[in-house]
Amino acid sequence: MTEQDKPAPSRLVVLAGPTAVGKGTVANVIREEHPEVWISVSATTRPARPGEIDGVHYWFVSDERFDEMIAEGELLEWAVVHSAARYGTPRGPVEEALAAGRPALLEIDLQGARQVKASMPEALFVFLKPPSWEELVRRLVGRGTESEEERERRLASARVELAAESEFDVAIVNHEVREAAGQLLTLMRPV
Asked: Which top CATH class is 3-188?
């Protein structure tokens, strides 16, 4: 393959927002309906929730393996989320997708987005926000996947996360998942 045959590198799009806003749901719609979009799979030290598959939803790793990934520079970003588990984005697959010219999406938390912004400021940073605080609480409670203590911890984090909207290039209100996914896909198209 000659230099002119190589695809032009693509621009990374980073999607972040508060807990329970629907980042994962929006990313899943794009994953299912737009296989041309490469979506990062994060590593995490938290246990899998019912129905989650290792390597599809997350890479579920031990604390020891996560420590190795940090030490070896294998993570583009990582953070402790909700004062509990660690999450991180493996660097290699992101760089490979961008070099191949594929539309690339990271669906991560606020701390991770800030780290990516420091190392890849040319990325497009998109903030997904709820229609209202009440709707965010309803969605979190409606998931039924967290204990009361975990819900309270996540809601405390969400208040802080919502205040960070101005750090992002653009915001999308998640009134309806397919509409939000469509807006995100429009932003991912080359200019």
From this structure: alpha beta
